[in-house]
Amino acid sequence: MADGGASSMIMLITALLISGGASAVLIGQWSEVLSVAQLEDRASLGESQVGVAIAGDPAMVAYDTTLNTITLYFVNTGEHALETSPYEIRINGDAPTSSSASVLPSGTSWEPGYLLEVTLTNASWSTTLSDGDDVAVFFIGISESVNSHTHSVTTNAEVRLHVA
Amino acid sequence: MGASVGVGGLIIGVSMLVVFSMAYQSIAMQIDSGLDRIEHAEQPTATFRIDDATLWEGAVVAVTISNGGAGYTPGGTVVASSGTGGFSGTYTVNGTGAISSVVITSHGNYSASPTLTVTGGGTPTTNATFSVTLGKVIYANLTNTGSGAVHHDQMWLFVDGQNATGFSTAYSSSISSERWYSGETLALQWFNASVSGTERLALTVGSTTVAHILG
Question: Angle CA(B157)–CA(B160)–CA(B166) in degrees, nearest 5?
């Protein structure tokens, strides 16, 4: 009887140890799974918190036929700063040969609500574009790091060129 | 027999604790995520309109006192004695009755600098003389038709698609508030001699842009 009691106790303790160990491993692994899921979720949330849009009058986008430049404004519509470089812009699918950008009202960090004034140059526009033309603008840029993730931001619109 | 039942019970109990712990972690994460998204979704898109917009290219934007004169009394007005533009202003006098400052109450709109005189200011012994500076002024009434308030820092003005100017730079208010509340109409008087355009005023807030022809 005593032997039976001792063996039962050994079985009980063994079972407890095994199930306890298994539980610890299982909960630990589940926590890791959740951590990864949470990181991905935050990344997804961060992506929804960055944005960009074309600012200014879309019916009067400045086109300088002397310098062959188009000046566009983009506003940071998100909740996090965006990088001022690199970015890519296409006018009717064509890349400008050069571009320059500055942040408005001032500074170098493109904060939420701030503008990025971009001046694009392409000599070939002198033959393909003229006052009053509607052109397709596409912009893609990147955000600064949000929760250790960098997100792309894009916008596109049809605008009308205006020669002052 | 009893030990076996005990062992079984313990195993089941531990298993339930494990399941409960996992479920708790999952629910906690989902609640965190949900709250973040709700917080983000609370920000409504700005909607607004430009009720009217007028450009006056010959507005009197500054008055300089060349000679304050003497013998004036308070209570009169400074008006234009030449041209038809609608300028008027008030003034203050010092101890000798000389005009010491002029406050513009109506900028008017002139093709050439008008001559200013004081009316209703008593009987001066020496007439005051003034010089004026003409400049561009854009008058516009802007109404927030959305459900949320917009901070002035989020607002950008454009003339003919150029001259990007922060709203807070162009707008001056009699109160210190820097928010544009739902249903509120702001009366903009934008003095800017360097504005190069004359055709359209545009206002951008976030991803929304509204434009209006300048009258």
Answer: 15
Q: How far is CA A78 from CA A62, A75, B100, B124, B130, in A?
A: 25, 9, 50, 62, 50
Provide the domain limits for residue A101. Answer: 52-162
Judged by CB atoms closer than 8 Å, whether chains meet at A45 and B33 is answered as yes
Q: Which of A23-32, B28-37, B68-77 has the lowest mean pLDDT?
A: B28-37
B124-133 per-position pLDDT tens digit: 999 999 999 8
A79 interaction partners in chain B (CB closer than 8 Å): 40
A46 at interface of B, judged by CB pairs closer than 8 A:
no
Query: Mean pLDDT, to the nearest integer, of B142-158?
Result: 92
CATH code of A144's domain: 2.60.40
Residues of chain A neighbouring B15 (CB-CB closer than 8 A) = 19, 23
Q: Do residues A80 and A63 both lie within one domain?
A: yes
| Residue among A16, A27, A34 minimizing CB distance to B29 | A34
Both A42 and A61 in one domain: the answer is no
Number of domains chain A contains? 2
pLDDT in tens, B76-90: 999 998 877 789 999
Q: Are residues A155 and A125 in the same domain?
A: yes
A45 vs B: CB within 8 A: yes
A74-124: pLDDT as tens digits = 999 999 999 999 999 999 999 999 999 999 998 899 999 999 999 999 999
Say whether pLDDT at A153 is over 90: yes
Residues of chain B in contact with residue A59, where contact means CB-CB under 8 angstroms, are 161, 200, 211
